[in-house]
């Protein structure tokens, strides 16, 4: 392992497949935790309903109420819905893939932007090619990391516009089908739903939902989740971190990120059981307990930059063997 000016380059394959094999050998009962949780669909209906009712209540309130409600309540509900889309992406609600896609599109409605179908395609590659720039859209682009680096103002703006930065990353990702009938349906549902919200609830309802979406993924303590999951926030070369804190309750234990990457077939309600069953494999890993503390640490700690991520190629070989090859790699990562 060698640290350089930009990313950290690894000679090793991502750690989750090997740890999962060891856990299954030691604890074959973990297989019983895999499966689906159709009750997650009730969470989707409840959170979508909450956002619509909140938007109705705020339609005649002052703009201060709109912004405050989006920050304090809407962001949490929006993040919960994002987690349910994540569950649907892994087909953890229903047996049929089509039903999971539909569930994800329903959960997508209060976010205004049609993101659930495209997220599903890119997220699967994040699991299969963790840390590989050509396939992992969760990984920052080189231009992105170079532009922001460890600047306080830069990191504030990076979090503020993070949803749009995520979209920009997708243009470098290979082998993803861009358009099909499911993506079209996602767009149609969002256009109809957003139009109905505007007509019946007014512009403040739209602004409330937009701010809820932006806060839930960006400049908000919940935005620290993106730092928590894979940013190198310790002196070790551990590249995936879990979060064990109170926000796991409304966020459906999404903080159990090492556990999720080890076993993507385990639904959210069984992730704490997975950790308890195989605790000897998780207790010595570094983890986070506060999104708020991590949020401010990320902003003010100049040791943490957008470059604080692990890079590898698709075969797990080092992407940085020497300076000459590094120049070629950097060119490739920015495409």
Structure description:
By secondary structure, the chain is an all-alpha fold. Helices cover 56% and strands 3% of the residues. The protein is built from 16 helices and 5 strands. The chain has helices at residues 16-26, 40-58, 63-89, 97-108, 116-128, 142-148, 152-160, 162-169, 181-201, 203-217, 225-230, 257-262, 271-277, 279-282, 291-300, 323-333; strands at residues 2-3, 8-9, 242-243, 287-288, 310-311. Helix 3 (63-89) crosses helix 5 and helix 4 packs parallel to helix 9 (181-201).
Main features:
335 residues, mainly alpha, three-stranded mixed β-sheet, two-stranded parallel ribbon, 5 strands, 3% strand, globular, disordered C terminus
Secondary-structure blueprint:
Layout: E1 2-3, E2 8-9, H1 16-26, H2 40-58, H3 63-89, H4 97-108, H5 116-128, H6 142-148, H7 152-160, H8 162-169, H9 181-201, H10 203-217, H11 225-230, E3 242-243, H12 257-262, H13 271-277, H14 279-282, E4 287-288, H15 291-300, E5 310-311, H16 323-333
Parallel strand pairs: 2-5, 3-4
Antiparallel strand pairs: 1-2
Helix pairs in contact: 2-3, 2-10, 3-4, 3-5, 3-10, 4-9, 9-10
């Amino acid at each position: 392992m060698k640290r350089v000016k930009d990313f950290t380059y690894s000679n090793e394959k991502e750690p989750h497949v090997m740890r999962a094999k060891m856990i299954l050998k030691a604890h074959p009962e973990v297989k019983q935790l895999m499966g689906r949780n159709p009750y997650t669909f009730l969470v989707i209906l409840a959170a979508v309903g909450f956002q619509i009712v909140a938007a109705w209540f705020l339609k005649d309130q002052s703009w201060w109420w709109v912004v405050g409600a989006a920050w304090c309540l809407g962001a949490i509900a929006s993040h919960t819905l994002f987690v349910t889309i994540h569950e649907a992406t892994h087909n953890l609600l229903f047996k049929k893939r089509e039903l999971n896609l539909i569930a994800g599109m329903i959960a997508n409605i209060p976010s205004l932007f049609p993101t659930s179908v495209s997220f599903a395609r890119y997220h699967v590659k994040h699991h299969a090619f963790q840390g590989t720039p050509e396939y992992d859209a969760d990984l920052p682009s080189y231009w992105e990391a170079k532009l922001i680096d460890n600047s306080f103002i830069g990191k504030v703006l990076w979090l503020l516009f993070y949803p749009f930065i995520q979209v920009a990353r997708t243009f470098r990702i290979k082998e993803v089908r861009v358009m099909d009938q499911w993506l079209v349906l996602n767009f149609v549902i969002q256009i109809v739903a957003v139009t109905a919200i505007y007509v019946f609830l007014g512009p403040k309802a739209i602004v409330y939902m937009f701010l809820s979406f932006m806060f839930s993924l960006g400049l908000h303590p919940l935005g620290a989740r993106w730092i928590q999951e894979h940013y190198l926030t310790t002196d070790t070369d551990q590249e995936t971190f879990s979060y064990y804190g109170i926000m796991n309750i409304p966020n459906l234990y999404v903080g159990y990120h090492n556990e999720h990457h080890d076993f993507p077939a385990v639904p959210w309600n069984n992730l704490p059981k997975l950790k308890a069953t195989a605790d000897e494999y998780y207790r010595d890993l570094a983890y986070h307990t506060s999104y708020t503390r991590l949020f401010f640490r990320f902003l003010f700690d100049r040791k943490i930059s957008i470059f604080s991520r692990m890079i590898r190629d698709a075969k797990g070989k080092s992407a940085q063997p020497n300076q000459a090859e590094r120049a070629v790699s950097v060119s490739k990562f920015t495409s």
